[in-house]
Amino acid sequence: MSPDSGPIHIARGRGGEVDVEGSLDAFAGQILLRAGFLFEPSLRGHWIRLPFDMGRDWENERSTWAAEMLTAARYAVHLDPGLDTRPTPLVTSSGPDRTPPAMPPQRTTTTARRP
Q1: Is the terminal CB of the chain with fewer CB neighbours within 10 Å at N or C?
Q2: Strands 8-12 and 77-79
């Protein structure tokens, strides 16, 4: 997966665990490891999840941190709203969304002409 492919989903599962779905490249995997996610082998590849019994606050903070790091690396991320600890939800964009800065009013000076 590259930052231009499908989104990475971070959500709380039916059993209360926080896991990640989506195809990941090595860099995205390293970001998730840094955020505290575990890679457990399974029949379908890897089950990527946070450790159990660390508390919902800890899980929410780690999930938000992972989503922020992945977004900073320009990956498309879908973070379950119940995991987001920031006051405003995470919004991903495909590029910088900048408006041009406002130009300050220009001062005009008048000079007196001498006859």
Answers
A1: C
A2: parallel
Q: What is the pLDDT of residues 88-98, one digit of tens each?
A: 655 555 555 55
What is the pLDDT confidence band of residue 1, given thresholds at 50, 70 and 90? very low
0.70 surpassed by pTM: no
3-state secondary structure the chain: CCCCCCCEEEEECCCCCEEEECCCCHHHHHHHHHCCCEEEEECCEEEEECCCCCCHHHHHHHHHHHHHHHHHCCCCEEECCCCCCCCCCCCCCCCCCCCCCCCCCCCCCCCCCCC
Task: State the pLDDT at residue 105.
Answer: 67
